[in-house]
Design the sequence.
């Protein structure tokens, strides 16, 4: 982009425009996954919805590739685009809680930690993900699962309305009654339909919760998974527990003799009476005594940020995922194999429960395509050293390839790299055609295509 073009964009905005020649450019194009090294021609950190409108109009009228950045946690770096424009919402953070109505209005560039902090003051919480530095934007638009899913549903099941800047530059508020087709599509369809400048969520009474961590040696993965697959789905909905294969980090609460050891385990979040968490989790002894079992009451925002330090921005990430409605014996063999050969200390596999309250929403009520899934699986290759990028990728792809035949065939859209159109279809299943029609209505020229792209219907 030449200087005059950049200047004309600048004059339309309250926020700055950061081009490759500007100081701060390299900082502005950094995202969470350090494996991504994209160089936009312009980064536009918007100050408000008016800036977003100006940026969308400018990008469209000048034929630029356009990407939208919320929290910057996209694995494949879909929030940046080489040589195009990134509409950066990272300055648009803020949360207004209405404690009486039990709702929160959240600016489109906010992070999960912003929401947890603001709502906790009122003893309330919005169901979202498990790492506080994740953006509400990408997480919500993809569906959003975390510690509260079994009790209160996906993030999209708690979305009440959204303010959206559309591809033609118009601004709409959408909910069940206003542009219901758009509202349906936003609840799982990703960033395909416009730039969301504000989300309104339903909140729930969540204050101090019972945190639990239970681990067993990796070689006991088969018996632990056989127990977990039976225990979790029939457990009360106020108990959430995601299964993991992992290497124990060298720090509390884990005893020193477990540090750096390959293990499997479950991270529990109990939203019932925290004094009863120990009792609710007594069955963890059923597959044989764990190497370590720890429970404690904890303020919900502390649970939400407990992984932040372990996985700061700037690591190499490669991930893949799939949905599962059961964990077969054959799948367990694959988990046992990959648990034994985790390539780096931070690499991990998680199975997040997506049953309970998430199953009480009808299969066609939102764009989320897998109401019949019980787990959303992700294999994450993670390491600080760029020299290990190949190793973590190979572990992840190998894990995925061997487990995919035992899956439901599609993945959570937020756990995909750039894996091609077949995988996008597999994510949305029978919802793809409807999404594609809605895309034609709201973005017929596919301006918003830096995402897991839904093509406008012809
Ligand atoms: C450490 C870590 C932990 C995670 N944990 C969870 C978890 O517990 N649960 C879960 O469900 N997911 C989880 N995820 C996945 C997460 O949901 C996705 O990475 C998601 O895309 C992050 O959103 P973001 O806004 O931070 O990302 P970005 O990279 O900014 O955006 C991702 C996509 O969303 C679009 N987008 C973002 N904001 C907006 C907006 N306001 N309007 C329109 N489009 C927008 C972007 O254009 C891009 O296509 C995790 C990811 C990481 C890295």
Sequence:
């Amino acid at each position: 982009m030449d200087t005059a073009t950049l200047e004309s964009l600048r004059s339309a905005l309250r926020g700055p425009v950061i081009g490759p020649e500007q100081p701060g450019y390299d900082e502005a194009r950094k995202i969470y996954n350090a494996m991504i090294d994209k160089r936009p021609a312009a980064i536009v950190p918007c100050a408000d919805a008016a800036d977003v409108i100006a940026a969308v109009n400018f990008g469209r009228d000048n034929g630029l590739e356009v990407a939208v950045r919320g929290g910057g946690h996209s694995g494949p770096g879909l929030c940046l685009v080489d040589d195009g424009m990134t509409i950066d919402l990272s300055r648009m953070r803020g949360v207004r809680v209405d404690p009486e109505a039990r709702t929160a209005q959240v600016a489109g560039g906010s992070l999960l930690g912003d929401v947890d902090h603001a709502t906790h003051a009122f003893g309330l919480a919005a169901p979202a993900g498990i790492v506080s530095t994740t953006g509400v934007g990408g997480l919500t638009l993809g569906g959003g699962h975390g510690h509260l899913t079994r009790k209160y549903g996906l993030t999209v099941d708690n979305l009440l309305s959204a303010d959206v800047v559309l591809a033609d530059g118009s601004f709409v508020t959408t909910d069940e009654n206003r542009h219901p087709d758009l509202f349906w599509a936003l609840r799982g369809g990703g960033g395909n339909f416009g730039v969301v400048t504000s989300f309104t969520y339903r909140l729930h009474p969540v204050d101090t919760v019972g945190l639990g961590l239970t681990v067993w040696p990796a070689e006991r993965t088969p018996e632990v998974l056989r127990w977990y697959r039976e225990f979790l789905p029939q457990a009360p909905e106020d108990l959430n527990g995601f299964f993991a294969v992992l290497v124990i980090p060298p720090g509390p609460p884990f005893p020193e003799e477990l540090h750096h050891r390959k293990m499997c385990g479950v991270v529990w979040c109990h939203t019932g009476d925290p004094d009863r968490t120990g009792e609710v989790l007594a069955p963890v002894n059923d597959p044989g005594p764990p190497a370590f079992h720890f429970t404690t009451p904890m303020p919900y925002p502390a649970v939400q940020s407990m992984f932040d330090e372990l996985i700061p921005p700037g690591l190499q990430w490669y991930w893949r995922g799939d949905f599962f409605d059961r964990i077969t014996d054959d799948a367990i063999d694959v988990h046992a194999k990959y648990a034994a050969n985790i390539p780096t200390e931070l690499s991990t596999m998680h199975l997040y429960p997506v049953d309970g309250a998430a199953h009480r929403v009808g299969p066609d009520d939102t764009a989320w395509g897998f109401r019949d899934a019980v787990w959303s699986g992700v294999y994450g290759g993670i390491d600080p050293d760029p020299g290990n990028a190949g190793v973590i990728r190979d572990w992840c792809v190998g894990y995925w390839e061997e487990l995919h035949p035992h899956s439901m065939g599609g993945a959570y859209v937020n756990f995909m790299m750039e894996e091609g159109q077949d995988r996008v279809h597999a994510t949305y299943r029978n919802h793809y055609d409807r999404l594609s029609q809605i895309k034609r209505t709201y973005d017929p020229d596919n301006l918003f295509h830096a995402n897991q792209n839904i093509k406008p219907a012809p």
Observations:
- The longest strand covers residues 208-217.
- The first helix runs from residue 3 to 11.
